[in-house]
Amino acid sequence: ERLTNENIRKHINDCITKDVTDIHAFALVFSSIGGINNEDIQSMIFIKRKYPQLKNFFLLLITHCEEKDVDERNTFVNEFFRHRDIVRHNLKDFFGLGIYFMGCLRPNLRRHPNLDAARLQSRNVMKMRPKLLDFLIFHEQSFNIHYSTSPSYASVSRALPYCSYSFRIIFNIVIILLLGIAIGIVVCVCLQPSW
Hints:
By secondary structure, the protein is of the alpha/beta class. The chain has one domain. It contains nine helices and six strands, in the order H-E-E-H-E-H-H-E-H-H-E-H-H-E-H. The protein has helices spanning 5-17, 38-50, 70-81, 84-88, 108-111, 115-138, 151-154, 156-159, 174-191; strands spanning 22-23, 26-31, 58-63, 99-101, 143-144, 167-168. The strands form two sheets. The protein has a four-stranded mixed beta sheet with strand order 4-3-2-6, with helices on one face. Helix 6 packs antiparallel against helix 9 (174-191). The longest helix is centred in the middle third of the chain and has 24 residues, at 115-138. The radius of gyration is 18 Å and the shape is globular.
């Protein structure tokens, strides 16, 4: 499901209303299949220019990497960072929290079982998840909307809803990601033995 600007605004307002103002990470999430578009790049440029302090709280999360090994993932990221607009605006440094990858067994394996493909995808998924899990569990630093060093940063909650709909904002709701990851691990474990 894609987050619309209105949905993002609602989530941010809910967090502010419930006083969930310590944000551990902002994330740009995109699929290795669909890639990133010019609108996403323009949003990154906007955030970097308007809120440079947020770079320490941004991460890049690339999904659908289950069929990519480490070398293929590195090649994919290197190609992304060679894009002329990314280079011109030095957006490689935009992701102060790093680059993370996710994946799970592809749904087509259920319709067309393929043991070799399932093993490859499982191996790749299990190799990339520890880095993300370690980050989610052990990252403690947060950005507080109310106590930032500059008034312009306090307005981040008003500015982010106008960014690209592909921007995903990750708040303190780490448990949702952990559940998704746990479910993915269960799927990997449960599906493989049946073939």
